[in-house]
Design goal:
Helices cover 42% and strands 14% of the residues. It is an alpha/beta fold. It folds into two domains: 153 residues, Helicase, Ruva Protein, domain 3; 183 residues, Rossmann fold, CATH 3.40.50.300. The chain has a five-stranded parallel sheet with strand order 2-5-8-1-9. The protein has a two-stranded antiparallel ribbon with strand order 3-4. The two termini are 23 Å apart.
Length: 377
């Protein structure tokens, strides 16, 4: 699909678009528009169901759902006790998906994840043959708990599953159920005895989601909720078939040419050795994001737009997902570490340094040339 629409000045926190002369011209069919409205309603219901069990963490839930409807995997980073596991389990219940949890440990083997072949004997005929016993990877949602606690050999067992949505055992390919998501957790504090994820595997995660402490009021609600006999019931909002249908709708959402260029430029600006980049990139970044980041920025922007009931992607959507898409793809150098500068700080400065429209470029924003062939005017 070749989008020819343009960006709009819309409020991303509101349900509907503020129509103006930049509304995209590629209209979705009526059936798809109805599906977008259904997803918007489902998003509101999902937040309500999750709130029965999970207090706060609204941004985390939004990012999880954006990744799911964009068909991506997530890495959740947060200290113990922030209900990361409970959040994922509750989400699987609300989405009516099968769920398996894998606790990663130093002695975990690849076959413990993918499954293995065993010899079985037919008692009637005495014939022996290999039979594949499926591992816990065969589920719609797989929680890889403390994924950095296992050696790289076992971590690599997830690579084929995450990218190809299949596993190969004994020369035979076994398709994984669809939809399929890997939601991994990682403890940022205790690093003794851990194995940092290789960049190739980190790049397979669409989002790197930071799970922060709750505020005082939320923590008080958590204590009240979890120290009583009340057991909330979570209703099932969407099925696996619904999610697959809505994932296709997300792919059809039109994207204006200059919005795609903005996403690409945002990614390319992280590479210190390419093009014209700000000084802080050269000072603090060793390696920038690859092309997969540009793809994920646009896909996540599409999913976010649909979740809020809009039928087009704005540059504000790209900005909103830039943090979780880029933070694990930017490798900082010693200068950044010495000055306490994190990848999130670089992303925020990068967003400020990259204009989002022609007017901002005319006002002195950097890199106005990204608009030269965007047909904006």
């Amino acid at each position: 699909m070749e989008p020819n629409g343009r960006d709009t000045a819309s409020d991303p926190t509101k349900g509907g678009p503020r129509v103006n002369d930049e509304t995209p011209q590629d209209a979705l069919p009526d059936a798809d528009l109805a599906a977008v409205e259904r997803l918007k309603d489902a998003f509101a219901k999902l937040k309500g169901e999750m709130a029965k069990v999970i207090v706060g963490q609204h941004a985390v839930l939004e990012e999880l759902l954006v990744a799911i409807f964009a068909r991506g995997h997530c890495l959740l980073i947060g200290v113990p006790g922030l209900a990361k596991t409970l959040m994922i389990h509750t989400l699987a219940d609300a989405l009516n998906l099968t769920y398996n949890r894998i606790q990663f440990t130093p002695d975990l083997m690849p076959s413990d994840i993918t499954g293995t072949e065993v010899i079985q004997e037919d008692k009637a005929t005495g014939v022996r043959q290999f039979k594949f016993l499926r591992g816990p990877i065969f589920a719609n949602i797989v929680l890889a708990d403390e994924i950095n606690r296992t050696p790289p050999k076992t971590q690599a067992a997830l690579l084929e599953a995450m990218q190809e949505r299949q596993v190969t055992v004994g020369g035979e390919r076994h398709r994984l159920p669809d939809p399929f998501f890997v939601l991994a957790t990682q403890n940022p504090i205790e690093q003794e005895g851990t194995y940092p994820l290789p960049e190739a595997q980190l790049d397979r995660f669409m989002f790197n989601i930071l799970v922060d402490y709750p505020d005082e009021a939320e923590e008080l609600d958590i204590v009240r909720l979890t120290t009583s006999t009340h057991k909330p019931h979570v209703s099932k909002i969407l099925s696996g078939a619904d999610i697959l249908e809505l994932q296709e709708i997300v792919r059809k959402v039109p994207v204006a040419d200059h919005v795609s260029r903005y996403a690409v430029r945002l990614t390319r600006m992280t590479r210190r050795e390419k093009d014209e980049v700000p000084d802080f990139i050269r000072d603090y970044v060793s390696w920038g994001a690859g092309p997969r980041a540009s793809q994920y920025l646009v896909l996540a922007g599409k999913a976010r737009a649909v979740l809020f009931g809009r039928y087009y992607v704005s540059t504000e959507d790209i900005r909103a997902v830039a943090g979780p898409v880029l933070r694990h793809r930017i490798i900082t150098n010693f200068n950044a570490e010495a000055e306490g500068i994190k990848p999130d700080d670089i992303v925020k400065r990068l967003i400020k340094a990259t204009p989002v429209d022609a007017h901002e470029a005319e006002q002195g924003g950097k890199l106005p040339k990204i608009f030269k062939s965007a047909n904006v005017g």
